[in-house]
Amino acid sequence: MGIKEQIDPARLEELSALGDEFINEVLTAVKSSGMEMLSKYHAAVAANNTDEIKLHIHSLKGAILNVGLKDVSDPIQELNNQAKAGNFDAVQAGFPAFEERFKAILALID
After folding, report:
1. Architecture of 3-106 per CATH?
2. Tens digits of per-residue pLDDT, 20-53?
3. Is 15's pLDDT higher than 80?
4. Cα angle 60, 62, 66; round to 5
5. What CA–CA distance (Å, rounded) separates 99 from 40?
6. How large a percentage of the chain has pLDDT more than 90?
């Protein structure tokens, strides 16, 4: 399965109208920024900085929803809701499964 199969069909159609080169640029940017946001999230957890945890989860959510990565859209939205509610134990419990799936999707990007 390739990266395009991971993108919501309606969003892929919108992105496709802008050309394959644009899609590739967007996906490359998501891969780079996604890995950076994961790193920053882990640093925030290590520092027990709940404001930064919320910020980085929210940033991940924005990137994922913007591209339409359907397999991780619901999990990151749930993590974002938990973070906004201050349920950081739930965030930490759910994050590893999300991260594993997200990294698997990012690995599909050339």
Report:
1. Up-down Bundle (1.20)
2. 999 999 999 999 999 999 999 999 999 999 999 9
3. yes
4. 120
5. 13
6. 95
Domain ranges of the chain: 3-106
List phi, psi (to 5°) of 108. Answer: -80, -15
Number of Cβ within 10 Å of residue 110's Cβ equals 8
pTM (two decimals)? 0.92
Question: Whose structure tokens read 């590893």?
Answer: 96
Torsion of CA 107, 55, 96, 105, to 10 degrees: -20
Residue 16: CB atoms within 10 Å: 13
The secondary structure of 4-42, three-state, reads: HHHECHHHHHHHHCCCHHHHHHHHHHHHHHHHHHHHHHH
State residue 1's pLDDT score. 72
